[in-house]
Amino acid sequence: MGKEQEEWITTATAARLLGLTRVQVRYLIRKGVLQARKVDGRWLVSRSSVLSQSGRKR
């Protein structure tokens, strides 16, 4: 019944999964395309939002 815990990944990992650069991933974060949060000065990206985008790229 509990909500599943979201997994957060680095921008480098997100970039690798999407076939993009880290700069491009940060652009997608700014545009609201990828769900992300800043922790200790670095961005962490929702793995589910990355997987959702990877399905749309092809």
What does this structure look like?
There is one protein chain. This protein has about 60 residues and is of the alpha+beta class. The chain has a domain at about 5-35. It is about 50% helix and about 20% strand. It has three helices and three strands, in the order βααββα. It has a three-stranded antiparallel β-sheet with strand order 1-3-2. A hairpin with a 2-residue loop joins strand 2 and strand 3. Helix 1 packs across helix 2 (about 20-30). The N and C termini lie far apart (about 35 Å). The model has no long low-confidence stretch (mean pLDDT about 90).
Would you spell out the secondary-structure blueprint of this structure?
Elements: E1 8-10, H1 11-18, H2 22-30, E2 36-39, E3 42-46, H3 47-57
Antiparallel strand pairs: 1-3, 2-3
Helix pairs in contact: 1-2
Summarize the entry for a quick read.
By secondary structure, the chain is α+β, with helices and mostly antiparallel strands.
Average pLDDT reading? 91
Strand content: 15-25%
Number of helices: 3
Radius of gyration: 11 Å
Distance between the termini: 34 Å
Strand arrangement, major sheet? 1-3-2
Q: In this structure, how is the largest beta sheet organized?
A: 3 strands, antiparallel
Which structural class matches the secondary elements?
alpha+beta
Q: Are there runs of 5+ residues with pLDDT below 50, and where?
A: none
Order of helices and strands: EHHEEH
Shape: globular
Helix content: 40-55%
Number of strands: 3
